[in-house]
Structure formats: structure tokens, C-alpha cells
Amino acid sequence: MFVNAGRFLATLVLAGIGVVLGQLPAHACTCASATTQSQTKDANDVFSGTITAVMSARKTDGQRGATVTYDVEVDRVYKGDVSTSEVQVTSGRSSGSCGLGQLVADKRYVFFAQSDGTDLSADSCGGTARASDQLVSKVERLLGNGRGPVPSAPKKAVFTMVADAQPETLTRLAAPGVALVLAGLLGLFVVRRLGARG
Fold it and tell me: 8-37 burial by CB neighbour count: b if 16+ within 10 A, else e?
């Protein structure tokens, strides 16, 4: 009887632990396995570049924040609208929360980023990784050789007519020039007349 009570108590304790552990938030990042092909398709922007600086966001209490911003000097754009040679990519600090973790400055990476306006973000499930020859070859097979980060063409100038403004007539525009020519000829005539008298 005591043996059955002990087993029952042990089962109850294990069940309680299971319930408590089941209520705890999951801290591990789980990504569905993806190919480079699906990662290039899912990303808004795919580009390669060298990280020049790494900055951690800080919380208001001074503690280290949950995000990291990477300054990237872009050298090739394979997909998307990246049009400047320097961009910032934001990600989670912890690889456990699908962040990129602590990427290394002065190293070249291929970024598979999502864009929200001009803001770029990336996570470990997207495919961002060191720019190995193998990864770059895969990306180039899928997206071509890419291009440099050339700015988009400037917008054409739009001319707006000022209200009630009339264009000047040719006669009015030429009048000052004609007056100067006449004054010059008159002056030349007077000088010659005076020279002839002398």
C-alpha cells in the first residue's frame, strides 16, 4: 500500500513539473529548414557587404538591449532596392530568439533582409551568413552577378508657372542690348566728328 502511495506521489510530482515547464516561454529559435533558393525568394533584399560597425541598442535602464544594428558597406546588390553603399541592418542580439547574434566587424557577409521602407532587418532563419565562395556562387546562380549599389536616377525637374506671369516678348528682352549698341555707335560717331575738326 505504501509502495502504491509512493508511486502515486511521484507521478503527481512529475505531472506537476511537466505542467510548470510547459507554461514557460520557449527560448530556443526554431527555423524550418530552408534552401538558399527559398531564402532568396522570401527576402526583400539580398546583398553582400562588409560590416564596418556593430552597435547594441540600450534599454532606458542602461542595460544592454535586445537588438543589434550593423553598419554594412555594400559591394553587390543581387535583389531589391538597396541603392546606397552604406546601409544599416537590425537584428536580434540573441541567436536563441532568431537574431543574427554577434556578427564580426571587418568581415564580409551575404544578407537576406526584409525591408520596411528604408529600414532593413535580418534574422538567423533568413539565411544571412559569411560570404563564402559556396554561398556567393549559389546566390549568383539564382539571382545573377548582381550590381553595384548605384543610386537610383534623380527625378526630373518639374517647372511650375508662377501665377499671372507672362513670358517676356523678344522685343523687351532685346531692348537693353539694342540700346547699348546704339549708344556705342553714337559715341563712335561723336569721336570721329571731333577728330575730323581737330
Answer: eeeeeeeeeeeeeeeeeeeeeeeeeeeebe
Which residue ranges in the chain fall short of pLDDT 70? 1-28, 58-65, 95, 151-168, 170, 173, 197-198
How does strand 86-92 pair with strand 119-121? parallel
Beta strand residue intervals within 80-131, DSSP E: 86-92, 108-116, 119-121, 129-130
Position 194 scores a pLDDT of 75
Exposure string of 111-146, with b = 16+ CB inside 10 Å and e = fewer, is bbbbeeeeebbbbbbbbbbebeeebbebbeebbeeb
| Grid cell of 3 as nine digits | 509502495
Read off the pLDDT of residues 3-39 as tens digits, 9 standing for 90 and up. Answer: 455 565 555 444 544 444 444 344 567 787 789 999 9
Question: Domain extents for the chain?
Answer: 46-142
Please check whether the domain covering 46-142 is classified as CATH 3.90.930.12. no
Q: How many residues does the structure list for the chain?
A: 198
